[in-house]
Design a protein that fits this description.
Strand 12 and strand 13 form a beta hairpin. The chain has 511 residues and is α/β, with parallel strands linked by helices. The protein has 16 helices and 20 strands. Helix 10 crosses helix 16. It has two domains: 165 residues, Leucine Aminopeptidase, subunit E, domain 1, CATH 3.40.220.10; 315 residues, Zn peptidases (Aminopeptidase), CATH 3.40.630.10. The chain is elongated and about 85 Å long. It is 37% helix and 20% strand. The relative contact order is 0.11. The structure holds ligand BES, manganese (II) ion and zinc ion (ZN). Zinc ion binds next to strand 10.
Length: 511
């Protein structure tokens, strides 16, 4: 499998003054009706004069998203050949997510104008709430997230892009913080390489990424990082009575797998378990989906992909913590060996499930995976899954749904999501929803009727987690991929949602 492992734009921190920058493009942040003089204070008189003239004549106002590339004025004090004026919007409204978009925009401009080195002068009003290093972190993330490409199978485009010279972005921040900022850039790089891995896996089509191939990728991770990978093949799954995973996979020639990745660098600290749904292609099975957008069901393994990206990122950062990542992988296809609506299966936990609809397959494989997670005795279990279309209806693409049995846990994750951009929003797991999945012929059924689809799916999963264990379920059906291309830091395709969220959660609560 071909992968995008590095990023075409290098980033670093510079401590030299703009005057010393030779042959570069100097980017100057301008605020909407803010303090242009303030942002320009470090530049020479000529530059200041020219920029103020452009503002006065209305070429640029400083609104968010505005950019203007101009030849640098003949100023003995400035050696840069070009100036890139960047609108930042209202200074008070600057937030990490808008800065990620801006970072992605900068990356695109570097690419388009073949800028070899872009010096970004981060200037903020002293009274601003957001710290300079936070601005840099968000910009750097945006540069990474926005310059991802999945073009391994575009032979011609790939040839053309080989000819493009790589760019470099230098952030100019206060001198005494440069070492700390450089470290921060390394952290952003490790996290975003994790996002890249999640996106690469997510974007692979069903024919090229089968459960077996996904398991090989986990072995690959174990070869390159201090991660221990265990793969259960069909035979082992039968032995362990993992009939949820087996039932979903039985219609396909590509047999299912249960992938476990362990990273233990935290001594006797408590363990975090992360579980990710990986249906490498979801046709619906015998309860076949309609053809419209069915190709997007290659993304039905994005929960598992996030677990892969997260494991790689924490291992690359060498975080001192204990994590187990569990990824049940299966392909959901109709055939003469496929499971049927009405089938009753016994999961590894022992619970009997009536399969009403073979398209509600995610919860069946997660049932066994969550039960498997219990055997590691984790302090917290978080699962991610492209589980329900109902979640897309409820929240669209702007937030994932979150459910669980600990309000404190949900609130912590929600807060981290607000900061990192992988936003989550709570949905209930009332007992009334549990009633909806009661079956007359088995313990539970896999569909709870037309109403509250995300909550009934969450309730289903709750039955496979020990009540005393803190657990959160994140439904990423609406956020795992984005075909609109409307956000500069989310190129069309898999978004890698969850990787940054898990990284920051793990670092905050398990290091
Ligand atoms: N993978 C789908 C959920 C999905 C649908 C994610 C659309 C993203 C976009 C899941 O396996 C599924 O098919 N769920 C069914 C459940 C239903 C049959 C109870 C659904 O949501 O329609
Ligand atoms: Mn399905
Ligand atoms: Zn599915």
């Amino acid at each position: 499998m071909q992968r995008m492992t590095d990023q075409p734009i290098k980033m670093d921190v510079t401590t030299t003054t703009p005057q010393k920058w030779r042959g570069n493009t100097l980017a100057i942040a301008l605020y909407d009706n803010g303090h242009p003089q303030d942002a320009l204070s470090e530049c020479g008189e000529e530059v200041k004069k020219e920029v103020l003239r452009l503002i006065k004549e209305g070429w640029i106002k400083g609104k968010a998203g505005e950019t203007l590339l101009i030849p640098a004025p003949n100023d003995s004090a400035i050696l840069a050949k070009r100036l890139l004026l960047v609108g930042m919007g209202e200074e008070k409204k600057i937030n990490p997510e808008s800065l990620r978009g801006l970072g992605a925009q900068l990356a695109a401009l570097c690419h388009k104008h073949q800028i070899s080195t872009l010096n970004f002068l981060i200037n903020l009003d002293k009274h601003n709430q957001i710290k300079r290093w936070k601005v840099m972190e968000a910009l750097a993330e945006g540069v990474w997230l926005g310059s991802y490409r999945f073009d391994h199978y575009c032979a011609e485009k790939k040839e053309a892009s080989k000819k493009i010279k790589p760019s470099k972005i230098l952030f100019s921040i206060c001198q005494e913080r440069s070492a700390r900022c450089r470290k921060l850039l390394d952290k952003v790089a490790a996290t975003c390489r994790g996002v890249y891995l999640a996106r690469d896996l997510g974007n692979q089509p069903g024919n090229l990424l089968t459960p077996q191939i996904l398991a090989e990728q986990a072995v690959n991770l174990a070869n390159n990082f201090p991660i221990k990978t265990t793969v259960l093949t069909e035979k082992a799954l039968i032995k362990k009575k993992m009939n949820g995973i087996l039932a979903v996979g039985q219609g396909s020639q590509n047999s299912p797998r249960l992938i476990t990745m362990e990273y233990r660098k935290g001594g006797d600290k408590p363990l975090l378990a992360v579980v990710g749904k990986a249906v490498t292609f979801d046709s619906g099975g015998i309860s076949l989906k309609s053809a419209n957008k069915m190709e997007e069901m290659k993304f039905d393994m994005c929960g598992g992909a996030a677990v892969f990206g997260f494991m790689q990122a924490i291992a690359e950062m060498k975080l001192p913590l204990n994590v187990v990542g569990i990824v049940p992988a299966a392909e959901n296809l109709p055939s003469s060996t496929a499971q049927r609506p009405g089938d009753i299966i016994q999961t590894a936990k022992g619970l009997f499930v009536e399969v009403i609809n073979t398209d509600a397959e995610g919860r069946l494989i997660l049932a066994d995976a969550l039960h498997h997670a219990e055997s590691f005795n984790p302090a917290v279990t978080i699962d991610l899954a492209t589980l329900t279309g109902a979640c897309v209806v409820a929240l669209g693409s702007h937030a994932s749904g979150i459910m669980g049995n600990s309000d404190t846990l949900l609130r912590s994750i929600q807060k981290i999501g607000d900061n990192c951009g992988d936003r989550v929003w709570p949905l209930p797991l009332f007992d009334a929803y549990q009633e909806q999945i009661r079956s007359t012929v088995a313990d539970i059924k896999n569909v709870g009727g037309p109403g509250g689809g995300t909550s009934t799916a969450g309730c289903f999963l709750s039955r496979f987690v020990d009540e005393k264990r803190r657990w959160a379920h994140i439904d990423i059906a609406g956020t795992a991929w984005d075909m609109s291309g409307s956000k500069p830091h989310f190129p069309k395709g898999a978004t890698g949602v969850g990787v940054r969220l898990l990284c920051q959660y793990a670092e905050k609560f398990f290091v």
